[in-house]
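Hello forum,

I keep getting stuck at the same step: I have a sequence, I want structure tokens, and every attempt I make locally crashes halfway through. Rather than fight my setup again tonight, could one of you with a working pipeline run this one for me? It's a single chain of 269 residues.
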Amino acid sequence: MKHSSREASRTGVLKRLGYLIFLLLGTLLIVFAYVFSGQALLFNVLISLGTVTLAIPMIQILWLIVGGEPAQAIIREMQDTMRLEGLGLQRFYQTRSDVDFQNEWLNYMKNASEVDILAHTGYRFQLQEAKFLEMLEEGVKSRKRRYRIVTYSADPSNIVTQLTGNTEGDLDRLRTLIGLSLSKLDPIIKHDDKKRPHLQVRLLENHFMYFYILRADDKMLVSPYMTHLTGTHAPTFQVTGRRSGLFEIYRKEFERVWELSTEYHPASP
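Reply #2:
Ran it on my machine without issues. Output:
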């Protein structure tokens, strides 16, 4: 311990000595520059060398004044933050239940021209909410917004729905929620423009859905589906920015699932 203390002290003395040498050398170079001020080339060379030599210890001294290592830690933290912003990661929630869907995200969707939803059932966070259904109906009637929704198929032959239901602990409930979601959407789909629909619903069969995704233009919520947690208890994060790395990854995930799913049509009365 004493040896380490002596080494640290010796290192500190050597650093201060080095600063002093650079200060003296830089000062001498500038003095000599003015001694030879009649020779323009030599004057400029000596001034430049003197200025650079003086700058080295001055920068080190200023670095120590503004915080030294603590300041360096702050700079590193800022760099890490900038990297996260480059990825598009804006906010992290411990569970999906912590997301302010009623106000914040409903408002995002009201003002969005494109809304995509990828969910096992879509019921718990969207289709059980009257405000969401009102927004959906108004958006479809206005012909100014486009909605795409993908859920699992409730078809008894869909092995993926069976496995997912067993994992979540209640297959019958999963199918019931899917049925409820579709029943809420049926009236809106029926009154939509058949040639240019603004609400499109698809069902995923025989392929697993690994993420819950909700996108409103350039804002996106992503939550993984996990084997030991139901969707509402899974960690969730918000991604922002169409050009960000994470946004593009999960946009492509939605598009791929959309391609794999089949179009849903309400049953005829």
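The two ends are 86 Å apart (CA to CA). If your local run keeps crashing, start a new thread with the error log.
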